Amino acid sequence: MSQRQRRRYTFRDYMNPTVLVMLALGFSSGLPFLLVGNTFGFWLRDEHTGLKAIGFVSWVGLAYSLQFAWAPLVDRVPALKFLGQRRGWLLASQVAVAFGLFAMAILGTVHGLSVLGAAALVVAFASATQDIALAAWRIEIAKDADELGLLTAANTLAYRVAMVCTDSLLLVSAQHLGWPLSYTLCGLGMGVGIAATLLAPEPVKADQVAARKLKEEPLWSLRGFFDAVAGPFIAFFKAHGAMALLMLVAIALYRLPDFVRGPMVNPFFHDIGMSKDMVGLSRATMGLGSAFLGVAAAGVVSLRLGLMRTLILGAVLQSLGIAANGLLIYSGSNVAPFVLVMGLDDFSLSFAAISLVAYMSSLTSLGYVATQYALLSSVYALAGKFLKGLSGLIVDWLAAQFGLMNAYALFFIACAAIAIPSVLLFALLARTHRLNADLGVNPA
After folding, report:
1. CATH class of residue range 11-438
2. Per residue in 308-339, is it b (16+ CB within 10 Å) or e — as a string?
3. 386 and 65 in contact (C-beta within 8 Å)?
4. Are 202 and 83 in contact (CB under 8 A)?
5. How far, CA to CA in Å, does 183 sit from each of 20, 47, 80, 166?
6. Distance of alpha carbon 158 from alpha carbon 28, whole angstroms
7. How far apart are CA 350 and CA 26, in angstroms?
8. Assuming Cys at both sites, which of 202, 331, 381, 385 could form a disulfide with 337, CB separation 3.0 to 4.6 Å?
9. Cα–Cα distance, 430 to 444 (Å, whole number)
10. pLDDT per position in the chain (444 positions), as tens?
11. Dist CA 42 CA 263 (whole Å)
């Protein structure tokens, strides 16, 4: 659809029941992410856990990067058949996340890091499953590309709100109520997603395709197993041809800077003397507002410049936001610079995140949506989720050479520089798409 023909959405469109359900489900999807990631690192640092251990524990997040391994089950096997293919998996995974968070709250660090890490792994695995089912639901429930864009924006916005809550309000809660009770409240917060799942419509077309595949090619048959596991890959490479591999590499590198620096962000704030109250309040105010602006700006820029240019701009902004954290070693616990850097960081990450989600959503095919989107999500997260486990080792090594604060600054600058290859690759993809369009060739 051309820019001139593109529909202008009104406030009433955003109050559409499907969009409201998407907001609640997006919140449920974003709630567990930092509870087994950066916020979990703050909890561990608060309990005097070493940076190396914090880095290694962050590997529980690899569950998000291996979604493709069990995504075919989400596409083909019903979890709770009476709810439908997508809603059944959503509800089952949301309940598992809630119980996992309760387990983390009960166990705490007194039972040892390995036991707490195992509970965190359960949360990460269930949360990743929820993301698989939700991405498929979002793509399949949309009536057209414009509604998909609206739902994607709603999902990203709610996801960011949840992340700000678990990265801000939770810190304030932990300061006054303690970490176990704060995690218990988050487990109860999963009730928002459970209620939304029960109210959500089931994508009819997706259920019909799943039923037909189950009848014609049962998963337990050789042909059905091959279609479930290899079919999504074959369909993807058939649709996008020679450019498919370049797309996957570009996607894999896009969010790498943020993933690698992730486990060290909250320990850094802790070590420069920022209290949990100050970090939490700053994220709940400037952070949340900046996240909203980042989502809105990405949508506007995408309409003006197109998706590919928006992706490139997002990568550059993400890099600048991450590098800016290094400046805080000169301001220490001074609030004003901290709030400004946090605002830039959250704006740029929201801008980059929604750009990448919109791009990946546009690459999926009906019948393989859950598996293909899980594949793309795994591609963009796998390298980062692995490398971030080494972040503590890197900072400790740099600290031995240059001192702890300088080590943090050098680390953030190095993470920002990782964005350069993704900028170049998406620029190449954008140029190829323009050339194909000029020649009248399908850009895929």
Report:
1. mainly alpha
2. bbbbbbbbbbbbebbbbbbebbeeeeeeeebb
3. yes
4. yes
5. 25, 15, 27, 9
6. 8
7. 14
8. 331
9. 12
10. 444 444 555 556 567 788 899 999 999 999 999 899 878 888 888 888 888 888 888 888 888 878 877 888 887 777 888 888 889 999 999 999 999 999 999 998 888 888 999 999 999 999 999 999 998 898 888 877 667 777 887 888 888 889 878 877 888 898 889 999 999 999 999 999 999 999 999 887 665 666 666 665 665 666 666 666 667 777 777 877 778 888 888 888 998 899 888 888 888 888 888 887 888 788 778 877 888 888 888 878 887 888 888 999 999 999 999 999 999 988 877 888 888 998 999 899 889 988 888 888 777 766 666 677 777 777 777 777 778 888 888 999 999 999 999 999 999 999 999 999 999 999 998 888 776 555 554 544
11. 9
The set of residues, in sequence order, having a beta carbon less than 8 Å from that of 395 and lying 6+ positions away, is 51, 264, 404, 407, 408, 411
> Is the distance from CB of 265 to CB of 45 less than 8 angstroms?
no
Find tokens 């996340």 and name the residue. 97
How far apart are the two ends of the chain, measured CA to CA in Å? 17
Domains of the chain by residue range: 11-438
Chain CA centroid to CA 197, Å: 20
Q: Report the C-alpha gap between 164 and 19 in whole angstroms.
A: 20
* Total-model pTM: 0.69
Q: Say what percent of the chain tops pLDDT 90.
A: 30
